[in-house]
Amino acid sequence: MEKLIINGGKSIYGEVEISGAKNAVVAILPAAIIASKGKCCIDNIPNIEDVNCIERIFEYLGCKVERKEGALTIDSTVVKSLNANTEHVRKMRASYYFLGALLGRFKEARVELPGGCPIGSRPIDQHIKGFEALGASVTIECGAVSVKAERLVGTSIYFDVISVGATINVMLAAVFAEGVTILENAAKEPHVVDVANFLNSMGAKIKGAGTDTIKITGVDEVVGCNYSVIPDQIEAGTFMVATAACGGEVKIKNVIPKHLESISAKLIEMGANVIEGDDNIIVKSDKNLKGVNIKTLPYPGFPTDVQQPMSTLLAVSKGRSVINESIYENRLKHVEELNRMGANITVEGRVAVIDGVEKLKGANVKATDLRAGAALVIAGLVAEGTTVVEGIQHIDRGYPNIEEKFKHLGGDITRAKCD
Ligand code: EPU
């Protein structure tokens, strides 16, 4: 077990390079298993634990994986097992994408129920609804989901809730479904578009990703391809918010500014200076920012994944802010830790009322999920004195080299073994 030790109170300056998007890569990698010919060479892979987990799952299923300088080559021409019965599946959420991918290619799969951050109930009923609509039978027994179909046939599926996971998983299964599949009320997140682009590069026929209606025309076969993952919208958002909170000036490089509009808009509303370039964003802040209200929503709304880092910024901004977390019922657990550092936040259900304080004070705190971890790191950078963040295995699942990136910007942050 490791921890981060942060001596806070310094403004941050310089440039930071954003890595490949976690929530895109964790879908693109499992999707590669549908290629029955050729290898997939996927570039801009972030160095995070979730990617390590997926590599282990591929090996468990008998596929060949090779990692070199930020790229991963997957040879799935031979798949020896359709039963992903390994602890690595249970360690992360996105392992459920092996279900849709294997169902599409082999018409059969068994995958343990996924893990992931404890931020709410996270059902998979919409994934199941989609698989069944395509003609599969789905059973959940002994902690695993089994899917099986004689054949998959395209149809129209209207999702009851907007779900990134269900949209991608059903899209994966539908690549090989006979005829046309239409997904309605689909998620529009950038990573949904990235997965569709990757599948099309392999030979799939998918149109409309990025809108709420996705049309998939079934094909018989797809082949390996070269592909580069988009930059991480959430990592970029985290550094934008961190700069606003710590004060200073940071150029956030290798981003798609369009993906960050909801975050830029809020920071500008608070009084920060946000300058968009072609593939970078500069954030300047004198820390003299005013509170705002946030409601998390599916893309293009304000992302739930940036809500926790944002709550740290609002904790040290002037006046009252209100956060309404509309996606997950349990994504405000980090607030207790922020209050230990001197924040003044009350939570009722999915709503946090934040009365801004002048400063936070260093304390020993613990991350209980990935973005809570990012929120606490930012709090440590802002706070006077020393903060020790434990539970950083959650942070390592989704942020590559977080302490190195902040150190490069002038943050005093080091990693150490827990006693
Ligand atoms: N939902 C259902 N039924 C389903 C699926 C989802 O009711 O079958 C509900 C969920 O309970 C939630 C909402 O729909 O209230 C949205 O869930 P979604 O399926 O979109 O989330 P997910 O696919 O499980 C992904 C990201 C999350 C991110 C959400 C929302 C991955 C691996 N995870 O989760 O990322 O918060 O979309 O954008 O892509 C993170 O990166 O920290 C993280 C948690």
Automatic annotation (TrEMBL):
Localization terms from the record: Cytoplasm
GO BP terms in the entry: cell division; cell wall organization; peptidoglycan biosynthetic process; regulation of cell shape; UDP-N-acetylgalactosamine biosynthetic process
GO molecular function, one term: UDP-N-acetylglucosamine 1-carboxyvinyltransferase activity
Modification type 2-(S-cysteinyl)pyruvic acid O-phosphothioketal: residues: C117
InterPro entries xrefs: Enolpyruvate_Tfrase_dom, Enolpyruvate_Tfrase_sf, MurA_subfamily, RNA3'P_cycl/enolpyr_Trfase_a/b, UDP_GlcNAc_COvinyl_MurA
Protein name: UDP-N-acetylglucosamine 1-carboxyvinyltransferase
Functional note: Cell wall formation. Adds enolpyruvyl to UDP-N-acetylglucosamine.
Entry-linked CDD domains: UdpNAET
Top-rank taxon: Bacteria
Catalyzed reactions per annotation: phosphoenolpyruvate + UDP-N-acetyl-alpha-D-glucosamine = UDP-N-acetyl-3-O-(1-carboxyvinyl)-alpha-D-glucosamine + phosphate
Keywords: Cell cycle, Cell division, Cell shape, Cell wall biogenesis/degradation, Cytoplasm, Peptidoglycan synthesis, Pyruvate, Transferase
Similarity field: Belongs to the EPSP synthase family. MurA subfamily.
Lineage per the UniProt record: Bacteria, Bacillati, Bacillota, Clostridia, Eubacteriales
Positions with a binding annotation for phosphoenolpyruvate: K22, N23
NCBIfam families: murA, PRK09369.1, PRK12830.1
Enolpyruvate transferase domain: residues covered: 7-405
EC number: 2.5.1.7
Active site positions: C117
Keyword Cytoplasm in record: yes
Residues the entry annotates as binding UDP-N-acetyl-alpha-D-glucosamine: R93, R122, P123, I124, D125, Q126, D305, I327
